[in-house]
Amino acid sequence: MKEYKAIACQLHDHIEHFATLRKLVDIHYLDDFGKRQFIKSVIKDWINIGNGEFVVLKEKEIKIRFDYIISIDNVDFQSFDTCAI
């Protein structure tokens, strides 16, 4: 797994928004091998593990690292700069 790259600060707001709504969302992301994946799921929570932040999905407790997310419901995560905090 490559080193974690912090996502843009405003994307945390989007993740919190989707998690609070508990609605089904379209998530495009990269798996650990860099292959593009898609899942339709509910964002249950977000957590910190080691040096990374992860979205926790309802199905099978799937976890997706923040910096591997491509988009959630047409919010393009790749178009934002990283967080400079």
Q: Could you say what the CATH topology is called?
A: SH3 type barrels
* Major sheet strand order: 4-3-2-1-5-6
Please give the radius of gyration in angstroms. Answer: 12 Å
Q: Which structural class best describes the helix and strand composition?
A: alpha+beta
Distance between the termini: 23 Å
Mean pLDDT: 88
> How many discrete domains?
1
Order of helices and strands: HEEEEEE
Number of strands: 6
Structure commentary:
This protein has one domain (9-75): SH3 type barrels (Roll), CATH 2.30.30. It is 15% helix and 42% strand. The protein starts with 8 loop residues before the first helix and ends in a 9-residue tail after the last strand. The model has no long low-confidence stretch (mean pLDDT 88). The protein contains one helix and six strands, in the order H-E-E-E-E-E-E. Strand 3 (52-57) and strand 4 (63-65) form a beta hairpin. With 85 residues, it is α+β, with helices and mostly antiparallel strands. It has a six-stranded antiparallel sheet, covered by helices on one side. The chain has one helix at 9-21, and strands at 24-30, 36-49, 52-57, 63-65, 69-72, 75-76.
